[in-house]
Amino acid sequence: KQAEKAVHLKKEQSKTKCRKARRRHINLVAEFNRRQRKNIWLETHIWHAKRFHMVKKWGYCLGNSPTEKSYRACYRAMTKHCLLQDLSYYCCLELTGKENELLKQLARICSIDAGLTFEEACCLSGRFEGSLSLYRADRYPEDMLGHVTFIWKPRNGSENRQLWIWVHPALKQDILRELKAIFQCSEPEEIYVPEPVTTSIQEEKQMDVVQSLGKKRKKEDKEGEKAVPVKKIIGDGTRDPLQSYSWVSQTTGIMISDRTMEILRYRLIGPLSHSVLTETLKAASLQTV
């Protein structure tokens, strides 16, 4: 029986793919998508996974501490050069509606006695980013929700404005619940179901490759190594993919949208940060129709 069992195990192990087949791009993307079912990866996950100890927090897989003694290098970059930090795991809540209505209701969850508010002139114009502490509606100085940062979209001549509020993933549900309450936003009738990014033909090929472990690559895959399936991110670490992502108020007309993992956020620290941005970002040429 032991001999038969050993032979049976050898046959099962022989079906696994060789390393060259496992490292093919289409197989790697399929495996990465499978591993993101519970914890979402950031766009820089592969870079961090090779250099950091990873931890699973707030529904994400984040780099916690470096595997090398790179503290001096990071300090040198912050003081003399430029250091980039990935903050894409922060949640972005978008508010859209009339400016007067937005400011009227947002004044209930902050106070001028605590410092900056959403009505600050330099922030209201959209030139600067602001930060403040939020409280439950009409409960200041009690029942503090947490610290957030915000930025207004510059005016375009219309009375409707857009406001982006960046919150920590641990505070997202409480702050989102309070925003829906003050703006009287109801749950939408239709639940957001994410559509696959890849086309149907690409999806079928990708599923065939995943299911046929141990088999040779199909001959009808003419693109071969050039077949590049698109990375799929369904939902985010703080929201189930079947939950709604947008809420509208029937009385005030304010719309709240969850833009988490749709807008990437990076922080540049150091005296050369501005030089890096000017060299990286190029102004597009204006085209008149």
From TrEMBL:
InterPro entries tied to this protein: Pop1, Pop1_N
Domain of life: Eukaryota
Pop1 N-terminal domain boundaries: 5-97
Origin species: Brachypteracias leptosomus
Biological process (GO), any one: tRNA 5'-leader removal
Record-given protein name: POP1 protein
GO CC annotation: nucleolar ribonuclease P complex; ribonuclease MRP complex
